[in-house]
Specification:
The protein is mostly beta strands. It is built from one helix and ten strands; from the N terminus they run H-E-E-E-E-E-E-E-E-E-E. The longest helix is centred in the first third of the chain and has 21 residues, at about 5-25. Strands 1, 2, 3, 4, 5, 6, 7, 8, 9 and 10 form a ten-stranded mixed β-sheet that branches. The protein has a single domain (about 30-155), classed as Immunoglobulin-like (Sandwich). The structure holds copper (II) ion. Copper (II) ion binds near residues 77, 88, 110 and 112.
Length: about 160
Amino acid sequence: MYIKNHGNYFMLAVGLLMAFFANFALAADISVEQAFVRATPPGAANGAAYLQLRNHTGKDIVFVSASSRQIPRVEFHQHQQKHGTMHMMQVREISVPANGEFHFMPGQHHIMLMGLLSPLSEGDSIRLQLMRANGELLEIDLPVKPVGHPISGYSVHSSHGEHKQ
Ligand SMILES: [Cu+2]
């Protein structure tokens, strides 16, 4: 079909090229995909944010902290299985490998939102700032998604709400 219609095919190619450069200009060295925050029930103390970071450079990019004006404390966390139960522990830094990706996802690494002042409700959004080791800030707006938001590994995460001591 596209062979008969060179005009459309050309415009498609131009469009793809423009999309590529638009993305490239927006995130020259790192980009964010599939960012979301999980909705929380009333009274929950903590929530969690998930996203995927893609490093477009030939050097590792390290993030040393996260923060939000809307949330008292934000930490990088990891899940760990210990004696058959899941525990969470703080992670000091996150390294996105050169030309690679780092995924925060349920049951694994996550960004812990601590001391919530009000529930995170579907339709709201949270602005997070991730700080790189070089001091640069990456600002991300994350929509709040319902608990059923599809992402692999979700079942492991069902008891995430509170920290186990
Ligand atoms: Cu956590």
